[in-house]
Amino acid sequence: MDNHKFYKINLNTEIQFLKGVGPKRGSVLNSFGIDTIQNLIRHFPRKYLDRTNIKHIKDLQIGEQAVIIGHIKSFGLKRLKRGKYFQLNIADETGRLSCIWFNAVSWIIDKFKVNDLVAVFGKIEFYKGLRIIHPEFDLLDQNSDALNTGRIIPIYPSSEKLKQSGLDSRGFRRLVLIALNKLNTIDDHYSDNFLKQESLLSINDAIHKAHSPENHDDLKKAYYRLKFDEYFFMQLALAINKNKIEKYNSKPIMELGPYVKDMYKNLGFELTSAQIRVLKEIRKDLSLNRPMNRLIQGDVGCGKTVVAMLTSAIVIAEKMQVAIMAPTEILAEQHYNSFQEYCKILNISCDLLISNIDAKNKKLIYENLELGNIQIIVGTHALFQKNVKFKNLGLVVVDEQHRFGVEQRKNLISKGTHVNVLAMTATPIPRTLTFAMHGDMDLSWIDEQPKNRIPIKTKIISKDKINIVYDLMKKEMDKGRFCFIVFPIIQESEKIDAKDAESAFNEFSTSIFKDYSLGFLHGKLQKDEKKVLMEKVNNNQIQCLVSTTVVEVGINNPNATIMVIENSERFGLTQLHQLRGRVGRGTFQSYCYLIERKKTLNANKRLKILEKTLNGFEIADYDLKLRGPGEFFGTKQHGYMSNKLLDIANDSKIIYHARNLAFSLVDKDCNLNEHSKIKSKLINDYSSILEFSNIG
User: Fold this and answer.
1) Residue 350 and residue 434 in one domain
2) Residues in CB range of 470: below 8 A, 6 or more apart
């Protein structure tokens, strides 16, 4: 190996050529996603420990965390009736302190010598004198850099595989410091004026201070800069996308057309002020000479479908077609049934395209779509197929839009020219997170429930009172009402301590609810089986549906009055709210019972939020703070939301400022010609978000 490579490194140098790494460690780091010096220095700590509180032993306070430096006086194993422990006694000029390690102590026995200077850190206790249980320590005579002493200590993410190669948190610290010492100054992609204007540290200073902070102010400034970068560049990409879309010339739609008036007459209810406001925003979009690109956020049952239908009616009047895209067949069929109600009255042709339609009917649908005989098509991923061609696609409505990837939406939109897009989600997403995910879209909120809707009553029920709930269910079913029982898992698992849906269904069918008709819905059902089951639900042949969370969206039964959620402590609040929204859609009082099988203080505190409020956005804000954005949408989450540092729940000021700055910059310089370094970084690091753009 050419040793000089260890001393001439840059950001793109392979990690194996860093001093202290080599091919073997390099291979392990590669498997962890760290293959260059750049990736190493951007492997930021997951937390920090404050070790700046160095104290004399006489000044120690019970319960505080402190660093003590002293000489080793004695050490050794001590035996207890049920095991053994290791005790280290140290002293400074003011007093003595004991350090205790219980169980599995063999690793530490050979670490110490009498009179060695040692620094220990931990929580101070008192038992027959001052002591610390399981302290962290540095042997100062042997370790002159004292990595754990007298400073703010970065703690790095690691794994068992990395630890086996000596790359625990301390090992990472050493490598990062070696890399930073060998590197020249890291070039910034912002100008000096930009840095000064925004009060930002240089990227060089920010990275150094993030890895080796001298104080908390260092950390605060470093992370502001690093978080700003993450969000600013993501929003730049979204701003460019939006700018490109808005430059497309499309035919403005100025008139409401004949269908809208007829639909208003046949609604049978008044629109809420929120629905009217959003429709006005949509009409304004359609009147412009660029395609609409709008997201409607609305709580469960707020009336988004009606807004989508009215928008479709406006577009159809211009002899254009509409595609409604849903993530599941259940939801697609629900939308189809809802749209069909109005389409029959308005004499609008509407059809359903899902994967389990037979080949003959599919072929017929393809032909009629291409001829323009179908005005509204409702479907799932089947709409993306090559065989699907439109005569004149004018509007795409994407429901539960977070469940579709960027490419999937693009595939459908590309089947027309300058297609208007109306995206919807019934998952209440906090506004901060909405801006983060959908910066390239105009945003609307339906934050009002339909008039005369009876609020759902929500109650936490302990497992020992579950029979009371079953009795209430029987009374409701005797009245002709419909009930749900939802479980987190299908089958019993040894690893998961939770009641499972399959065994519960069998128990209910043979004992508790043997006199009632039950159905069992889960994700592993065959399509034909699911179809038959849903027909029975819709025809009131089933009184109670036992289900996994597949029921979360897609079933809209006005007779549904009771939702029972088993092991509710295992669900996120937003998901519980979604499930609750399956009831209370008719004219009857409805109830949601949250069965708490594993009671903890934190779980109970979370669930009480649902007892207190029906406001999905309130719940979502609370949920975001608890869980973070990554768990809102599961595996379907947008790829560009994989920020490492940005805390969506708590960094709203950075988010809004970076977003406004990014959009302002693109307004003034849409191709970033005056900001070549920013442009270069954007293309290199954020190309996946530039879905509609070509700024290269």
Assistant:
1) yes
2) 512, 513
Give backbone dihedrals phi and psi of 247, rounded to 5 degrees, phi first: -85, -15
**Residue 395: CB partners within 8 Å, gap ≥ 6?**
292, 311, 312, 315, 320, 321, 322, 323, 419, 420, 421, 422
647 is a domain residue: no
Nearest CA-CA partner of 547 in 488, 594, 473, 506: 488
Q: What is the pLDDT of residues 448-474, one digit of tens each?
A: 888 778 899 999 999 889 999 999 999
User: How far is the C-alpha of 479 from the C-alpha of 465, rounded, in Å?
Assistant: 23
Reading the block at residue 268, the tokens are: 């049978």
Co-location of 321 and 432 in the same domain: yes
Residue 222 lies in a domain: no
Q: Do residue 478 and residue 547 come from a single domain?
A: yes
Residue 137 within any structural domain of the chain:
yes
Q: Choose the weakest-confidence range: 548-562, 570-584, 609-623.
A: 548-562
| pLDDT greater than 80 at residue 9 | yes
- Residue 92: the pLDDT is 93
For the chain, the average pLDDT equals 84
Same domain membership, residue 321 and residue 277: yes
Of 334-343, 356-365, 394-403, minimum mean pLDDT range:
394-403
Residue 323 near residue 383, CB atoms below 8 Å: yes
Query: In the Cβ-directed half-sphere of 17, how many Cα atoms lie within 13 Å?
Result: 19
487 exposed, middle or buried (CB, 10 Å; 0-12, 13-18, 19+)?
Answer: buried
Q: Which residues pair with 122 in a beta bridge?
A: 66
Q: Distance between terminal CA atoms of the chain?
A: 38
CA-CA distance, 460 to 604, in Å (whole number)? 8
What's the domain range around 293? 258-446
Q: Which residue has the tokens 């019993």?
A: 492
Per cent of the chain over pLDDT 70 is 88
Instruction: Copy the structure tokens of residue 506.
Output: 């069998």
- pLDDT tens column, 177-198: 999 999 988 999 999 999 999 9
